[in-house]
Design goal:
The radius of gyration is 32 Å and the shape is globular. The protein folds into 4 domains: 90 residues, GIY-YIG endonuclease (3-Layer(aba) Sandwich); 118 residues, 2-Layer Sandwich (Nucleotidyltransferase, domain 5), CATH 3.30.420; 242 residues, UvrC, RNAse H endonuclease domain (Nucleotidyltransferase, domain 5, 2-Layer Sandwich), CATH 3.30.420.340; 64 residues, Orthogonal Bundle (DNA polymerase, domain 1). Helix content is 44%, strand content 16%. By secondary structure, the protein is of the alpha+beta class.
Length: 715
Amino acid sequence: MPELSETLQAVLNSLPHKPGIYLHKDAEGTVLYVGKATSLYSRVRSYFGDPADLSPKNRALVAKIADIEYIVVGSEVEALILENEYIKRYQPRYNVRLRDDKNYPYIKVALTEDFPRVYRVRSFRRDGNRYFGPYTNSGNVDATLDLMNKIFPFRTCRYDGATWAPPRGREENPPPDWKLKYLPRPCTQYFIHRCGAPCVGNVSREQYDAVIEQVLLFLEGKHEAVLADLKRQMEDAAENLEFERAASLRDRMQAVEQVLEKQKIIHTTGPGDQDVVALADGDDETCAQVFFFRGGKLVGREYFILQGTRETPASEIMSSFLQQFYDTAPHIPGELVLAAEPDDAEALRQWLRQKRGGAVTLIVPQRGEKLRLVEMVAQNAREVLEQQRIKWLSDSQKTALALDELREALNLPTVPHRIECYDISNISGTSSVGSMVVLEDGRPKPSDYRRFRIKTVEGSNDVASLQEVLRRRFKRLFATDAPTSEADDEEAEVVVADEVAEGPDTTEEVELVAGDEVAADSDTTEAVEAEQETLPDEAGTSADMAGDPWSQLPDLVIVDGGKPQLNAAMTVIAELPVGVPVIGIAKENHGAIGTYEEIYLVGQPEPLVLPRGSQGLYLLQRVRDEAHRFAITYHRQVRSKRTFKSVLDDIPGIGPKRKKALIKRFGSARAIAAASLDDLLSVDGMTRDAAERVLEHIGNGRAIATDASEDEAGG
């Protein structure tokens, strides 16, 4: 155990072997982390063992702990409840936190009111009313309320309905001081058929209650019950010759059927209620996506953003989300289908059972229909994170503010109109690639993205690889400006010849990519094969006409990394010279947990740390993440190409077209090795002679050995 202060040592010595919660605090008394434990003695002391046994997140946490407070409780379930309350109260930096959880809207059916209203609220209370939610999008709540009001004629006014009918249970003998009092006339809602107008006595309390009952069934997802009730009412109205009312009920039935038809797209095999929960990780945030199944049908879905999740296991994130979400959820289903097993699963089950008043099953499927549901929900979660990123970058006000903050913080002469960010990706020094992503006026410009295959650097050397990428990029700047010698002309021609456009993410594209810089503005393999000198833009004009991206000087260059990467970049800038401001951005302590980034500036020994809520910081993080994503995507494609190249490229008579056809037909070198002669002859373009060469070349087990070596390498 490392050397501890007297305060911490005294706390550790006094810890009881009982369940409870503990609060880690810094020197200023700020709560850094709230945790629960079945044994406070064992759990808290585990933080102060061998640092090598701790995650990067916990190592950074322990370094800041100056004091520990703990509270003993009677059971693990009580600890779970208290932990959740303290996390919401203090919002500790190192805990997984549900972002803005107090602001999520609900739909409230005010059953405690006379002639209950249905409306949106921002808080959930156990007050005898019915709540549905929480929802993450207020617009969706308003759209749902509007749809329901078209189908079910409930009131939306704020009048007190206590005088429109006698109190419940006193209809035959109302109180002496009660008097019937209607409004002079109904409002517009009545005339557009959105309210039955109980305010003027057009509907009785029983008739209005029947409408509210249908609203509740609709919100619960029990649409078949709503349809059955509407059909019964329509038939009764028709029998009583109330044809106008019957027509209105028919229209409401059709509206419900339209909603029901949309929900038939996705369903589960079981008849009960289920919530399916999956996660998608971002940089320091995670998207938790929930699909709500009621009666076997998908009735809704919501996503929630969790903060402080960097370097946090999925089990801890899942546990934290379930605690915080279902603590205020009005409805808990009997089955939760999860993408990851949560920490303290048994305590969670007991807690959920108490809140629901019935058993709750937690399932982490490994196969079958439920696993496919989890994968679908996880894909939706990933899409949400990407949409959030794009949405933020497309907000002109935020990006303008971010650019102005960067100009001031980085002491730039002007607002950076064009920003270029560079990143390197490799695994153990193999298949090294670089990426360049571009922002113009704070927004991504994918047509100017470029990818580089590292040529001159051997092994894992990110600094040298970054220098190669920058040299090649800025040599293109001079080449497109005005080459001053034959050497310059030759270099520009070589790079252009290597340049190809990015096609679809398929095996065909992987086979064709043989150059280094790869443009990202084309979606056809024909563009790859053409290797044209001028890259077409969206309007179809040439790069020379529209402005070659290589010829545009950036206002700011960002490199992913700290001092070594920044110094390497400045060496290249000084060589050429370009005269462009350069900064480096790296996570605190090179990957340890933190809510801020270190920004390295030329000539400054200490990194700059922008305020936590800075829009400029957010823009830097997003462009860095985009460069990393783009580099990783290309790196995977390069590795994929190497998998197939190792065997097929050495077979005489098997050129690019036949190789692509074989890969498209069989999918892998292993499958090609297992194919018969007749199978090979069925491939387009294959002759008997070529097929026999394939069998002769890979029939000795080379394909299987190659596949195995790729598997060992993570390919």
